[in-house]
Amino acid sequence: MVPGWIRPFLVVLAIYDIVLGILFLIAFAPIFATFGVTPPNHPAYVQFAAANVVIIGFGFWFAARAPERNRDILKLGFLTKIAYAGIVFGYLLRGMMPGMWVPFAWIDLVMAIGLVAALRAIPAPAAPASQARAA
């Protein structure tokens, strides 16, 4: 039985990542300009990262529909959140990170903690009978 808070939590993660990813996919230039961040020499660098954020968002959406079946998607989502927060905070400590990225890192860190709690609370799927006999 999946605790009642997990599906709504995953839907929030999905919406957050999908909206944020689409926003940076189509409007990164004015966002960068607003915060005084120099864009990379080619838009594809930002757009590819943004598309990956959208994809992870859809992963959270799929996981919200069937958390037990999609635990591995949650593990990948956790790794993405930790990777982003770790990179941002690492550069921030060296004074090399524009401030616009820091709030997203804090949000991702909180989401990563929530994902750990979700993974601990979601029952692992039962092994198929063929695997149970082989063990």
Write a brief caption for the model:
The protein has 135 residues and is mainly alpha-helical. It has one domain (6-124).
| Approximate strand percentage | under 5%
- Look at the helices and sheets and give the structural class: mainly alpha
Query: What's the shape?
Result: elongated
* SSE order, one letter for each helix or strand: HHHHH
Main sheet record: none
Q: Name the helicity range.
A: over 70%
Separation of termini? 25 Å
Q: Could you say how many structural domains there are in total?
A: 1
Low-confidence stretches: none
- Give average pLDDT, whole number: 95
| Tally of contiguous helical segments | 5
| Rg over alpha carbons | 17 Å
Total count of strands: 0
Entry keywords:
135 residues, mainly alpha, elongated
Protein topology:
Elements: H1 6-35, H2 43-65, H3 71-93, H4 102-121, H5 129-134
Helix pairs in contact: 1-2, 2-3, 3-4
Task: Write up what this structure looks like.
With 135 residues, the chain is mainly α. It has one domain. It contains 5 helices and no strands. The chain has helices spanning 6-35, 43-65, 71-93, 102-121, 129-134. It is elongated and about 60 Å long. The mean pLDDT is 95.
